[in-house]
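quick one, 198 residues, struct below
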Amino acid sequence: MSEQDLKDQNLENEANVEEVEAVIEGEVEVSADAARIIELEKELETTKELMASQKDGVLRGKAEVENMRRRVSQDVEKAHKFALNKFANELLPVVDNLERALAAADTENEHTKSIVEGVEMTLSSMLNALEKSGVTTINPKGETFNPELHQAMTMIEVPGAEPNSVIDVMQKGFELNGRLLRPAMVVVAKAAAVDTSA
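---
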């Protein structure tokens, strides 16, 4: 081999070495980039999981706030609806006394006729005011006894009366917007006794 061939060979080897070094450096860069990509993909996956859990937490929080808002709204509605409960209970004896006064009044006497009319108007006015506030009267005479609305004071046999029916009302009951304020005190018919002597 000539000297020129050797120089050419050395130059070629140096070029090959430079190419190999460039490839090695490129691989280092490629592997560093690949590692960074893997790292970023892991971070992305972690971030997605965190977002999913936070989204779930936000949805749960929103649902809880909505439930709380609904409960508060219902409580406020009940408070408005039944705020008159105590006041209405205080007025019921007044209604009872006005009804007793009318029951005991002599409607034929000319001297007391205007007083009776005044009591009737007062009672009517009181019942209208109570009704506007949601208070309704329970007067079950002739109806079937209902233990949820009526309180049986006594049971008696009444010929021709349906057993378990209300035959007399001793004191009317009242409800406030569907809630029982006071049960009606009633007399209930019972079934006739069966004659066993025959």
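The domain at 83-190 is CATH 2.30.22.10 (Nucleotide Exchange Factor Grpe; Chain A, domain 2).
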